[in-house]
Design brief:
- The chain is an alpha/beta fold and about 290 residues long.
- It has a domain of about 160 residues: Diaminopimelate Epimerase, Chain A, domain 1.
- About 45% of the residues lie in helices and about 10% in strands.
- The protein has a six-stranded mixed β-sheet with strand order 1-2-3-4-6-5, sandwiched between helices.
- A hairpin with a 4-residue loop joins strand 3 and strand 4.
- It is elongated, with a radius of gyration of 33 Å.
Length: about 290
């Protein structure tokens, strides 16, 4: 009987330890995934503009990127933030909205801001915009923004992808400040570096194109010799005994030019009708946004 009692107690202890371990693991995971203290919107921002919980960046990369995020945010008076996690609870769009709200990013700049979030477990991404940034980053603009990052994200070059994010946010916010947010039919404005790049490239191409005929002419001139008369240039004579103009036929082609009636059947999945699609987060704040996999 004592033996059975001992076995029973041992089994009970094992089960209890397993339950404690499972609870601790669940609590640890939950605590790691919920990155805000409460479900109340604080009066001040609680987090830096870069939180790399998935540890995708080196310390030096984090420092350089955070400086860039802070400078660009101050420049446009709009929070530009990045969040990386290993996993998250619930739909990623809801998580991104809640992270922005419950960490007080909407407490600055009249609620204006944009967050880019990566969740590595399922390789998901989300964009959450707020305030005037909802209209600076249209549905089409968000698609453009992610496509600029897509290649580096797929290759695991996260630092380059995040730098592109900040640079393109700067570009799209500039376009919005000029009254022409990037949208269907509106291309991103050229930056000074773009213009300088095109100028240098044009000059280089022009020099290369001009160089070949010059070198060819130089090569041909090596065979030129002094001639005593022009006889060498006379290869024969041209006699035109008959001159006649003849009308053959007349052809007229017509092509109807399609009219633009201003309508669009675009959708978030395969096209865009222009503007921003908005939704309300759990805190009651309005957000723009998009999400997907990379």
């Amino acid at each position: 009987m004592n033996t059975m009692t001992k076995i029973s107690r041992a089994v009970s202890k094992t089960i209890l330890l397993m339950m404690i371990f499972a609870f601790a693991l669940t609590f640890k995971t939950y605590a790691a995934e919920i990155l805000w203290d409460s479900y109340e919107v604080p009066a001040t921002r609680q987090k830096p503009r870069l939180v790399d919980n998935a540890d995708l960046l080196t310390d030096s990369e984090e420092t350089a990127l955070l400086q860039k995020l802070d400078a660009t945010s101050e420049k446009w008076q709009s929070n530009i933030a990045i969040l990386t996690v290993n996993s998250h609870n619930g739909p990623i769009q809801d998580y991104a909205d809640d992270y922005f709200d419950y960490n007080g990013f909407c407490s600055e700049y009249n609620e204006s801001g944009i967050l880019f979030m990566l969740s590595m477990e399922d390789r998901e991404w989300a964009i959450s915009s707020s305030g005037s940034a909802q209209y600076a980053f249209t549905d089409y603009g968000q698609d453009y923004l992610f496509n600029e990052m897509r290649g580096d994200l797929s290759d695991g070059d996260y630092y380059d992808a995040f730098n592109t994010y900040v640079e393109q946010c700067d570009r799209l916010l500039y376009a919005y400040s000029q009254g022409t947010p990037v949208d269907v039919g509106v291309k991103p404005p050229k930056t000074t570096s773009d213009i300088l790049g095109y100028l240098v490239g044009s000059i280089a191409v022009g020099l290369v194109v001009a160089l070949f005929p010059i070198l060819k002419m130089k090569s041909d001139l090596k065979t030129v010799k002094m001639a005593g008369n022009a006889a060498g240039y006379a290869k024969g004579k041209l006699h035109m005994s008959i001159q006649q103009d003849r009308f053959v036929r007349k052809t007229l082609s017509k092509t109807e030019i399609p009219r633009d009636n201003g309508s669009s059947n675009g959708s978030r999945g395969g096209g865009f009708g222009g503007g921003s699609t908005l939704h309300t987060s759990s805190s009651g704040h309005s957000h723009g946004g998009s999400h997907g996999h990379f």
